[in-house]
Amino acid sequence: MLKKYTFGTPFPTESIFVPVEPAQGLPEHGEINLDDGFTFTFHMDSEDIVYGLGEANRGINKRGFVYTSSCSDNPNHLEDTVSLYGAHNFIIVSGVLTFGIYIDYPASLTFDIGFTRTDELVIHCQEADLDFYIIEGDDAYHITRQFRKMIGRSYIPPKFAFGFGQSRWGYRTTEDFLKVARGYRDNHIPIDMIYMDIDYMEDYKDFTVNKEFTDFPAFVDNMKKNGIQLIPIIDAGVKIEKGYEIYEEGVKNNYFCKKKDGSDFIAAVWPGYTHLPDVLNPEARKWFGSKYRLLTEQGIEGFWNDMNEPAIFYTPEGIQNIKNKMKAFIAQEENKDDVWNMQNQVMSLANSPADYASFYHNINGTTVCHEKLHNLYGFNMTRAAGEALQGISPEKRCLLFSRSSYIGMHRYGGIWTGDNKSWWSHILLNLKMLPSLNMCGFLYIGADLGGFGADTSRDLLLRWLALGVFTPLMRNHAALGTREQECYQFEHIEDFRHIIGVRYRLLPYLYSEYMKAALRDDMFFKPLAFDFPGDSMAANVEDQLMLGGELMIAPVYTQNAKGRYVYLPEEMMFIQFLPDGEISEEILPQGHHYISVPLNVVPLFIRQGKCIPLADMAECVSQIHTDHMKMIGYEDSSYLLYEDDGYTRDYDLEGNCRRMG
Q1: pLDDT tens, 163-190?
Q2: Is residue 581 left, alpha or beta, with left meaning phi > 0 and alpha meaning psi from -120 to 50?
Q3: Residue 93: CB partners within 8 Å, gap ≥ 6?
Q4: Would you state the pLDDT for residue 62?
Q5: Does residue 594 contact residue 586 with C-beta atoms inside 8 Å?
Q6: 485 CB contacts (<8 Å, ≥6 apart)?
């Protein structure tokens, strides 16, 4: 059962795909107070579990912490971080009473889930202008599937996007990209994509390439002939530069966000001072999206949108404020408080709430302050691209994913989980985000394998890749100035070749399960409790996930670990992909087990009575053959394989399935 309650005058975010008529009165669950904005309070039972919130910190069970939905550029997220790059306001309380809540509110929203008081769930925002949805169902999984139907079908990428990709901030010249391609191809490590971070551009200007690319279309084509797609980044800020076509057009047609006085808002990011395209304005959104054609016409078939929280390094007003305070600081004899205050002033320049409150959007003739709609910017930047690319290539899928997001963006593209670190704790955080993101519609997801910031180690990268084998987006990405972490940079390259090779052997199954999840409004990753709702032990397992209809994954995420403990809710077959190409199979009974997992082994578990198809090794997706695949798993079982051409948008769940086994 689904009910919608409308308070005040909500902004139409378009996150909901299926319209719902508002109900009368107040929700049956919890209490609502409108004295100070909007506050929802629910008294939780001691055993209640709270799922959801998509891209959020901490565990699969969100109980015991406070979270703020406010898209934030925060590359140094620690255990106490309350906001990350996405804002996904969907939760499920699972316990004595089981129900889901979605709050369609695009400004800052706080979920206090047993933090201030252990028995209270308190949701609060400053203004009571929102749509409040209550979803009831048999269990958390049933509620999730209802919500998924409400918000619409998840984005479907081209099949090559399920291959492995290499990225690094700092690739600038044709030789940089050719070196990476040679490093993988010469060592026979599978790869399908090389990502182009900001240095491929001319002076960090969107939709340009620098002078090192003397014939960019020919270069793109030659890379494709080698089985590699180039995937460029697009940033939100448009450089202020006379003669730059996109800047000139945006100014002329009032396509940029404005200050209160009507002038174009100015903010600094990588190019220096920029304007922000007003992607919440339908005309400006269409205009910005049309610019992706400048690169698709040169052969590009995929993009990643970045800096779209939007990230702001500083503004002219912020700099002037610092200068004024610095003058006063210099003119007096300082004390320790003055020094600390000055330091805090400088550190607070980036992504300042005051800056977000100082610019405006033009939405169908109505001027709206950005801070009221902050969480929609990344969504609408990616919507601009998604709608434009569908018009540019109506029959062909294009790879598209974003850093910032809100529920609804999942219909246009996927996400990567932003700038993480080369920390062991971030492997576990990556794992725990996966089912929560699926609950919110985001299926094409992944993290920067090996970690973006800081220096990775060989064992950290291998363990993270062994998790990345299973994530739809599998990308190794590193920051400028960090250790080079391409897989061929380490000793015993054969271990990397083997682990990434397992991804390609499993790819027909992973693609099949992804397509089933997308076309059925289902999940690719699930908490164990979703498949075993009556198992109290399964409900408390946070470092193992169900994948598709056949698998359970239990990656190793601890430094120097030789293996790990796992809990099996039922009898399962323990599979190990060994470095010599052999596959170890062992049936383990229901219960707790310690499993040995060497660094160069990929483990998984096949559910009782199930099997999966396995392809031969290939070095790119186009070389994977599915005519004579091997089946692994339980005897006398079969698998329904979904298979299509991987490029067109003509999806046929029934017509493209065949029974194997």
Answers
A1: 999 999 999 999 999 999 999 999 999 9
A2: left
A3: 42, 44, 48, 49, 50, 99, 100, 101, 121
A4: 98
A5: no
A6: 168, 422, 450, 456, 461, 476, 478
Alpha-carbon distance of 534 to 631, in angstroms, equals 30
- 300-322 pLDDT per residue, tens: 999 999 999 999 999 999 999 99
Beta bridge partners of 75: none
Q: Any idea which residue has 């902004």 for tokens? A: 11
Per-residue pLDDT averaged across 57-75, rounded?
Answer: 97
273 beta partners: 268
Q: What's this model's pTM, rounded to 2 decimal places?
A: 0.98
Going by C-alpha positions, the residue among 234, 280, 275 that lies closest to residue 256 is: 275
Residue of 195, 202, 191 lying closest to 243 (CA atoms): 202
Taking the CA atoms of the chain, what radius of gyration do you get in angstroms? 25
Q: How far apart are the first and last CA of the chain?
A: 39
CA 115 to chain centre: 26
- For 476, phi then psi, to 5°, come to -90, 120
What is the rounded CA–CA span in Å between residue 44 and residue 47?
Answer: 8
Condensed to tens digits (0 to 9), the pLDDT of residues 101-129 reads 999 999 999 999 999 999 999 999 999 99
DSSP string, 584-639: EEEEE-SEEEEEE--TT-EEEEEETT-EEEEPPP-SSGGG---TTPEEEESTT--E
The pLDDT score that the predictor gives to residue 576 is 98
Cβ burial, residue 571 (10 Å; 0-12/13-18/19+): middle
On the question of pLDDT at 337 being above 90, the answer is: no
**Could you count the other beta carbons within 10 Å of the beta carbon of residue 622?**
13
How many residues does this entry show for the chain? 661
Give backbone dihedrals phi and psi of 312, rounded to 5 degrees, phi first. Answer: -130, 120
Alpha carbon distance 47, 114 (integer Å): 12
Which structure tokens are listed for 222? 């030659």
User: Which pLDDT band, with edges at 50, 70 and 90, does 344 fall under?
Assistant: confident
- The Cα–Cα gap between 409 and 402 comes to 9
Spatial neighbors of 635 by CB under 8 A, at least 6 apart, are none
Read off the tokens for 269: 């990011």
